[in-house]
Amino acid sequence: MILVIAREPLSYFRPYKTYFLAIYAFFNAFPISQLVLVFYPEAYLIRLTTQAFAAAAAVIATLWGLLVTKLYFYPEKFSLRSALANPRKPMHLAYLLYLVPMVFLVILTIADPTSIDPSSSRQALYVFDNTYAEAVGLSSFLLSVAAVVIVAFTLYSFVVLSRLRSQLRDRDVRGALRVIARCFAATATLLLFGYASASFGYSLLGLVHLVCVILLVVAVTAFKRPTFLRAFLGLVPSLGPNPALMRGDQIVLIYGNDDAKITPIARFVNEGVNQQNRVIYYHSNDEATAREELSRNAVDVKYNLTKGNLRLPSIDSLYQGENLLDEEAAIGQCQELANETRALGKNGLRIVIDYGDNTKRPYQKFVNHIADPRWATSDHFAQVMMTFADRAFKDEKATLDLLKSKVPVIDLTESTDIFSRTVGLSHDEVAGRKILLEYDPLSGYEKILRTLATEAASNFERVILFTRKDSPIYSAMEDELGLKMFVLTSRVSYPKVESENVVLIPAFDSSLILDSMNKTIEAYAATPFTIIFDNISHQIFTLGTERAHSFVRQGLELMVSSRITGVFLLNYPAHDPKTVSMFENLFDLELVSRPGARIPEIRKKLSLTVQ
Questions:
Q1: Less packed terminus of the chain by CB within 10 Å, N or C?
Q2: Average per-residue pLDDT for the chain
Q3: CB 10, CB 519: distance < 8 Å
């Protein structure tokens, strides 16, 4: 279990890993004391190991109290020294008072010889074997002090973690805190019960230790479960600069024809049902057509309709008639759907409203209706995508500009293949490929990646960027829509969330970078997305050519899915042709960005052209 914690790189509790490791290590004192009692029943050894497990219990309680207090204060610093330096602060005083029974427990076992009876005359009935064997006698006073330690151990962590959980939004982290606290409290209570019963002539320690091991395994599982990536990656890419809409809770999509609109709609629907959301698609066609279009784009319509995950009502039912008559009724219906979906226990609600080429005069009032924040919910439970044919705004550029100023708008007629056109391919030819972008630092290559990110966002594909703050890519792409950024830095030794869209990870820990890639791939398994790694040259200079080659190969193996477009950058003038060729052999497609060239040179592999 200690190895599992030590090797888990992405847990929310990673910064406190040392405390968990120490707590688990000190738990070994309990079975060790029993092994001594069975195999080396010398009085002085029994007394010594009993004192050791009492001290271990006090240390565990002390570390656990320190850990939960640190969690409570995070991101502020907290330590025993700071508590002693400022004991008048309520939480500092609470922790110092919490330590009193632990200190007293250790002193009692050392200063009072009568508190421990190691004599061989002390016997206990092993209930399941129905046999008597030697047991350690503990005085009633010692057991009372131990009980006080258990009560403090349980109540202090319960109160502190309850206050902490009320401040946390991440459901997994809240659940993990609850599980870990309950497992530790149950373990401590069982151990007290086991040793107390042995003192009174009945031993259940074998069963108690078995149950405690199971509880500790459960606690380790809870340690691993909440990853910072879940909260960081989110459910929807950030598609707008407005802080109220940073998670894309209201999105407007402009499309040229029905074939163009259905791909992003299908992805929005598929992602929703795969994440246990309820999805309502108000279509502007007949239901049979809507079913056929979604089915053609990999949505299991029949299954999700049967399970209640998907509904396909007409847009007329939303507005209670044609021509978008009752605007308040439409918003009210969506609010009722959100309440109903919560009652069903779903993780969220997604609503697609296809207006087709329908708009309503006066346009300003209609735009205000579309941008009304009541469509979504403040806790991001409900998310709404509204789609319009481009002909709905024909000769109404001012209306479209007004709409873009109020909500995030993705215009599929402008940017769905801006990168693909630049390199002379279609979006489908580029999607899912593993691309090596060989660049000269003077070529302006960062503009190429900006077009790639824009195209991905326009196709509702996420972009994950691994870069460094001193890279031109960082400054060129930090404001791109839908972008999540892993910044490689030597400033941290474990992953640390810096902002909503930026996580810092250790630059020289290849296994952690790969694990971040893997967790990202798992999180976005149901949807196409792009991973950009900037850059291979940095890995070559820091790790060496062979290790960098192994790193890139492992990264590409993780991205084997055709849903993942992988782009790796290589500063080709910085390496000899042999090194460049070694990395080229790993990729489907090579792009070369040279100084003075308006577009990158493309090199197609046989696997790309032969289908």
A1: C
A2: 82
A3: yes
* 138/140 Cα distance (integer angstroms): 7
CA distance from start to end of the chain = 48
Alpha-carbon distance of 400 to 17, in angstroms, equals: 52
Range of the domain at 211: 2-226
- 175 and 291 in a single domain? The answer is no
* Structural domains counted in the chain: 3
Given a cut of 60, is residue 234 above it in pLDDT? no
Assess whether 167 and 148 both reside in one domain. Answer: yes
Q: At what angle do helices 29-39 and 205-224 cross, to 10 degrees?
A: 150
| Residue 355 φ then ψ, to 5° | -80, -10
**Helix, strand, or coil (residue 126):** strand
More confident residue, 29 or 594: 594
Please list, in sequence order, all residues whose beta carbon lies within 8 angstroms of the beta carbon of residue 320, skipping any fewer than 6 positions away.
326, 329
- pLDDT at residue number 530: 92
Cα distances from 433 to residues 112, 125, 296, in angstroms, run 73, 69, 22
Residues 406 and 470 in one domain: no
Looking at the structure, tell me whether residues 169 and 264 fall in a common domain: no
Identify which has the larger pLDDT, 531 or 9.
531
CA–CA distances in Å: residue 539 to residues 19, 187, 433, 547, 568: 32, 46, 22, 8, 11
504 forms bridges with which residues in the sheet? Answer: 487, 496
Q: Which amino acid makes up residue 59?
A: V
pTM strictly above 0.70: no
More confident: 423 or 490: 490
Q: Which of helix, strand or coil describes residue 33? A: helix
Q: Highest-confidence range of 154-168, 230-244, 518-532, by mean pLDDT?
A: 518-532
The beta strand positions in 359-472, using DSSP E, are 382-389, 409-411, 434-439, 462-467
Helices 258-274 and 287-296, axial angle in degrees (round to 10): 80
Amino acid (1-letter code) at residue 505: I
Phi, psi of 400 (to 5 degrees): -65, -40
